[in-house]
C-alpha cells in the first residue's frame, strides 16, 4: 500500500489480504465466459467419462473412486460452488457496464432531442422570415412585367385643355 499525503494513514495490522477488485472481476468474467462455452461442456464431458470409465473398468488397485463415485460428486460440487458466484460476479459487472452505457445513451438522446428542438425552432423562424423576403421568382416576374411595360408603345396622354 502506497502512503499518500491526501489520505489518512492506515493504523494496525490488516488481517485480511489485499486484492485488486478490478483484476479479480476481470478474472471472474474470463472464467464465466469460458464456463458458458461448448468447449467447456466438451471438456467436462470427456473428464467425467474418463473418470467413470477408469474407475469402472480399471482392474484392482488402479481404481481411486469406486462405483458410487463419491469423489467425482465432490469434485463436481466444488466446481459448481465456485462457478456460481463467479458467474454472478460477472453478471453484476455486466449490469454495471450496461447501466453506465444506458446513462450515456440517455444523455446523448437528451442532447440530440435538444438539438432537434433548436433546429426545428430555427427552421420555423427562417420560414417566417422568408415570408417577408422577396423570392427570386417574385423579383424576376416583377422585372419581366416592368420590362414589358417599358417596351409597349406609349400612347399620347389626352391633354386637359379644351
Structural account:
This protein is mainly α. The chain has a domain at 21-109. Helices cover 70% and strands 0% of the residues. It has 4 helices and no strands. The chain has helices spanning 21-35, 38-57, 70-132, 136-151. Helix 1 (21-35) packs across helix 3. The N and C termini lie far apart (120 Å).
Helix share bin: over 70%
Distance between the termini: 120 Å
List how many beta strands DSSP finds: 0
H/E series, N to C? HHHH
Radius of gyration based on Cα positions? 42 Å
Strand content: under 5%
Structural class, by secondary structure, is mainly alpha
- Low-confidence segments: none
Largest sheet report: none
Q: Count helical runs.
A: 4
Mean pLDDT across all residues, rounded?
A: 86
Principal-axis shape equals: elongated
Keywords: Membrane, Transmembrane, Transmembrane helix
Pfam families: DUF1003 (PF06210)
InterPro entries: DUF1003
Transmembrane segments: 40-57, 69-90
At a glance:
This protein has 162 residues and is mostly helical. The protein has helices at 21-35, 38-57, 70-132, 136-151.
Topology:
Blueprint: H1 21-35, H2 38-57, H3 70-132, H4 136-151
Helix pairs in contact: 1-3
List keywords for this structure.
single chain; 162 residues; mainly alpha; 4 helices; membrane; Putative membrane protein; transmembrane helix; transmembrane; DUF1003
